[in-house]
Amino acid sequence: MAKNDIVYAVVSVGGQQYKVSRGDVIVVDRVAAEEGKSIALQPIAVRTESGEFDTEAVKHTRVRAKVAEHLLGKKIRVFTYKPKTTFRKTRGHRSRLSKLAIESITVREQKETKDGA
Fold first, then answer.
1. Which of 18, 21, 91, 100 could form a disulfide with 65 if both were Cys (CB 3.0 to 4.6 A apart)?
2. Long-range contacts of 77-84 (CB under 8 A, 24+ apart)
3. 34-82 pLDDT, tens per residue?
4. Please, which contacts does 89-97 make with residues 24 or more away whose CB atoms are closer than 8 Å?
5. How many angstroms separate the CA atoms of 23 and 1, rounded?
6. What is the pLDDT of residue 116?
7. pTM summary value
């Protein structure tokens, strides 16, 4: 398999799966890395140019992503009440997110093993 034979990969980040290719930017739950640092993501599926999912290439593929920035999500207000009483409660939530820029999807070269002796 050639190094640039990979079209895209499916990676798992924060319990969710994302389809990524080189140059994509995704927004995920906050990762424990500083802005500007690169992190490695382990793919769970890889698709080649021939259109097939290559299960053998997944073991040797690495996805590098750069943490572009940390940001906050949209503020969500949750209002609960109980009818016929004066119970009212308002709560808010704001997700902490990270923006990842996919730098590269590479395949490590596999060493050939000899079947003899």
1. 100
2. none
3. 999 999 998 998 887 777 777 777 888 889 999 999 999 999 999 999 9
4. 95/29, 96/29, 96/30, 96/70, 96/72, 97/27, 97/28, 97/29, 97/30, 97/70, 97/71, 97/72, 97/73
5. 21
6. 56
7. 0.75
